[in-house]
Amino acid sequence: MSEFVICINNDGNPASLLVGKVYRTLPDTEAQSHSMLRVIDEDKSEPDGYLYPASMFAPIELPEVARRALMAVGA
């Protein structure tokens, strides 16, 4: 899975996820085996991220400069 995803559906999670926003994923092979992603969401209080259905996101590839900028701000 991509290191970054864009939210395409926030049904049931409007306070935690913004449609159209780029989020960083964290590696979690067990979650992926259940079609889930571990994502650093708007709350940011949980450093290990939260699990969401993978169908709520689309993987994206970012230019290196954008990837570094997002990693620096903890996206």
Strand order of the largest sheet: 4-3-2-1-5
Tally of helical runs: 2
Describe the main β-sheet briefly: 5 strands, antiparallel
Helix share bin: 10-25%
Number of domains: 1
Low-confidence stretches: none
Q: What distance separates the N and C termini?
A: 17 Å
Helix/strand order, N-terminal first = EEHEEEH
- The helix-and-strand class reads alpha+beta
Mean pLDDT across every amino acid position: 90
Number of strands: 5
Please state roughly what percent of the residues sit in beta strands, choosing from under 5%, 5-15%, 15-25%, 25-35%, 35-45% or over 45%: 25-35%
Please give the radius of gyration in angstroms: 11 Å
Shape: globular
Describe, in short, the structure shown.
The protein contains 2 helices and 5 strands; from the N terminus they run ββαβββα. The protein is 19% helix and 28% strand.
Question: What this model shows, in words?
Answer:
With 75 residues, the chain is of the alpha+beta class. The protein has one domain (4-63). 19% of the residues lie in helices and 28% in strands. It has two helices and five strands, in the order ββαβββα. The protein has helices at 29-33, 64-72; strands at residues 4-7, 22-26, 36-39, 50-53, 57-60. It has a five-stranded antiparallel beta sheet with strand order 4-3-2-1-5. The two termini are 17 Å apart.
SSE layout and pairing:
Elements: E1 4-7, E2 22-26, H1 29-33, E3 36-39, E4 50-53, E5 57-60, H2 64-72
Antiparallel strand pairs: 1-2, 1-5, 2-3, 3-4
Key traits:
single chain, 75 residues, alpha+beta, 5-stranded antiparallel β-sheet, 2 helices
